[in-house]
Amino acid sequence: MAFQINNKTNFYISEIENLLQDLYSFSQDRFGFKKPTSLELRSDPANKSPLGKTAHYDPSSMKIVIYVDGRHPKDIMRSFAHELVHHTQNEKGMFDNPINSTEEGYAQKNPHLRKMEQ
């Protein structure tokens, strides 16, 4: 099943688009999630730190966002796989407790989110 990729960057996606679709299908079969997710590729010129943002998952919209600036396609794929695990966790109800903050470092400070990252 194909999913929507929204490329909001100048990143040339055609070399990995089929790989992203294949990874999505494999993950759906392997993890068993039923609800579709979407992928948004973003550029953030201010995100230049080696430890900058890489990706995040929004449980309310079921959208995955990946930042692509200066990243190798393999690393983008790795981030996508990681966020698909969060999509699976969301579908299983593991995000049912509302997260009141999305300030920087919120996932590291929240014990429930730390456990989910493990």
Structural class: alpha/beta
Helix fraction bin? 25-40%
Percentage of β-strand residues: 15-25%
Residue ranges: pLDDT <50 for 5 or more in a row? Answer: none
Strands, count: 4
- The helix count comes to 4
What is the global morphology?
globular
What is the residue-mean pLDDT, rounded to a whole number?
A: 86
Main sheet specs = 4 strands, mixed
Radius of gyration using CA atoms only: 14 Å
Spatial order of the strands forming the largest sheet:
1-2-4-3
Q: Report how far the terminal alpha carbons are from each other.
A: 28 Å
Give the SSE string.
EHEEEHHH
Textual characterization of the structure:
The chain is built from four helices and four strands; from the N terminus they run E-H-E-E-E-H-H-H. It has a four-stranded mixed sheet with strand order 1-2-4-3, covered by helices on one side. The protein is α/β, with parallel strands linked by helices. Helix 1 links the parallel strand 1 and strand 2 (38-42). The model has no long low-confidence stretch (mean pLDDT 86). Helices cover 38% and strands 15% of the residues. It starts with a strand and ends with a helix.
Short summary of the structure?
The protein has helices at residues 17-31, 73-91, 106-109, 111-117; strands at residues 4-7, 38-42, 55-58, 63-67. The protein is of the alpha/beta class and 118 residues long.
Characteristic terms for this protein:
alpha/beta; 4 strands; 15% strand; globular
Question: Helix and strand layout, with pairings?
Answer:
Blueprint: E1 4-7, H1 17-31, E2 38-42, E3 55-58, E4 63-67, H2 73-91, H3 106-109, H4 111-117
Parallel strand pairs: 1-2, 2-4
Antiparallel strand pairs: 3-4
Helix pairs in contact: 1-2
